Amino acid sequence: MIGWPEPPEGFAALREVSARFGLDPMHVQGAGGNSSIKSSDVMWIKASGTLLAQATERDVFVATDLAKMRAALAVRDKRADQPADFLLPGGTGLRPSIETSLHAVFPHPVVLHTHCVHTLAHAVRQDMAGLLAPRLDGFAWTHVDYAKPGATLARNVEMALRPGTNVVILGNHGLIVAGASAAEVADLQERVHAALFVPVTKASEPDLTALAKIALDSDYAPADDTALHQLALDPDRVSQVSAGSLYPDHVIFCGIAVPVMGPSETPEQVATRYHDQGAPSPVWMLVPGLGVLVRRDASTPARIMMRCLADVMARVPGGAQLSYLTTEQNLELLDWDAEKYRQRLNA
C-alpha cells in the first residue's frame, strides 16, 4: 500500500466526537486517550503526543497500514511495538499512537480509548471485576488486567474479545468502546460512563497559611487547585496514594506514587531524599493534614495528571484495597522511548 489515502466517510464525525470527549477531563486528561477509524486496510489513528481536544482544530490523525499491523501481531513480530513502522508515506511527520496495535485488534470501524475518571475509580481496585459486573449488566463487556500499552496489551485484549464485545475495561488504565460509527461510539461512551458513575467524597479545607510557611524560599508552593489538597487531608487517602502508582500516565508525568513529607522534613529534604535514591526532585508532595505542595516549575501535563489522581481518588473509598503497578512495571514506563517522544511533544 503506497501513498497517503483520503480519509474515509465518517472521519469528520470521528474528529468531532474525539474533540468532544478530549475537552472533558472526566473522560480524557491532556494528551491521554486516542481514537481511530478503519477503512479497508487503512486505519486512521490519533498521533502520539497530540490532543484529542484539538481534533477539529488541528491535523492530529495519521494513516497506518492496518493489514501489516495485524499481520505483525499475529506472528508476534517485534515491529508491532513500533507503530511508526506502519505509518503510510506522505504524512505530517507525526508518529502513530503507541496504542495503534490495540485499536487494530478490534473488528469495529471506530474505536475510542479514554482514561475516564469513573472507569479508573473501578479499574484501580483489587475487586474491580466484582464491582463492574452489576454496573455493566446489559453491556457486551469484558476486562483485562494491566499490561504495558503496546503489542502485549493488544494481544491480551484480542484474546478477551468475544463476538459482539464492544466495551473493554483495562485494569489500571481506562476504557475502550467500539462501534460501527462515531455516533454509536459516543453514545456507548456516555452510557458506560453513567453506569460507572461514583459521587465524590465531601471536601475538606487545607491549611494554606501553614503550607505557605513550609514552602517559603523553596522550589515548591501550595497547590492552586483545591481538589489536589484532598489527597493530603485524610490518612487513608495519604496511605493509598503514597503506597504505589495506579496507572501509566501518572508514572510518566508525575513519577512513582506520591511523595509524603515527614513530620520534621522540609521540601528540600524530601527532594534530597529522592536524589539519594537516584530519582529526580518530586513534582509534588503531600503534607499530611495540611495539603499539597507542587514544584513551581511543574509542567502543565504533570499538573493535569495530579488533578486526574485527585478526581479518581475522590471516588474511591478510603478502605478500598488498590491494585498498584509493580516496581518493574513502573520502571519500564519511565524508560520507554515512545513515552519520551510523547513527553517531548507535550513539553
Description of the molecule:
- With 347 residues, the chain is α+β, with helices and mostly antiparallel strands.
- The protein has helices spanning 11-22, 66-74, 100-104, 117-123, 128-135, 151-160, 182-195, 208-215, 226-229, 235-242, 248-254, 267-276, 300-313, 327-334, 337-346; strands at residues 34-39, 42-46, 61-65, 110-114, 141-144, 167-170, 174-179, 220-222, 284-287, 291-295.
- Strand 6 (167-170) and strand 7 form a beta hairpin.
- The model has no long low-confidence stretch (mean pLDDT 94).
Which descriptors would you attach to this protein?
single chain; 347 residues; alpha+beta; 7-stranded mixed sheet; 3-stranded antiparallel sheet; 10 strands; globular
What is the overall number of helices?
Answer: 15
Largest sheet: spatial strand order: 3-2-1-4-7-6-5
Helix content: 25-40%
SSE succession: HEEEHHEHHEHEEHHEHHHHEEHHH
The residue-averaged pLDDT reads 94
Secondary-structure class: alpha+beta
Shape: globular
* Share of residues in strands: 5-15%
Biggest sheet, in brief?
7 strands, mixed
- Number of DSSP-assigned strands: 10
Low-confidence stretches: none
Nutshell version of this structure?
With 347 residues, the chain is an alpha+beta fold. It contains 15 helices and 10 strands. A hairpin with a 2-residue loop joins strand 1 (34-39) and strand 2 (42-46).
